[in-house]
Amino acid sequence: MTSIRTSTPDMPTAIPGFDMWLTENKGAYAPSHVMALVSSALKVEMRYLRAKEKPQWITDARQIYCFFARYLTQASYNEIGTKIGRLHSSVITAERNIQNKLSVKDERIVDKVATVYQYMLKEHKYGQYV
Question: Domains of the chain, with CATH numbers?
């Protein structure tokens, strides 16, 4: 069963227009496309998003994928987790971690989320998204 998210995270971010963009683009992407875009934007091979390894750069990319997939697709936590070999509870935790880090303006995460956001804007501009 797919749960439909109707609102964006309640978090002040240092990324202008980001919250509005999340709302406007809900359901515009498939999880596999979000995975490809996050992978490309952060220059992390998709196989690492599925890997069991836990270096910070892989964990960040995996959690950012979960966050974007949750807000830009209509996929359930379970469907998002299946793409990366994780349980739905891991996706929930990842989403919350990114929300928390954005709300406290964790510089490393804000920069990475902004990079993915800008990459997706560029892809959208040139008609490359679903």
Answer: 26-125 (1.10.1750.10)
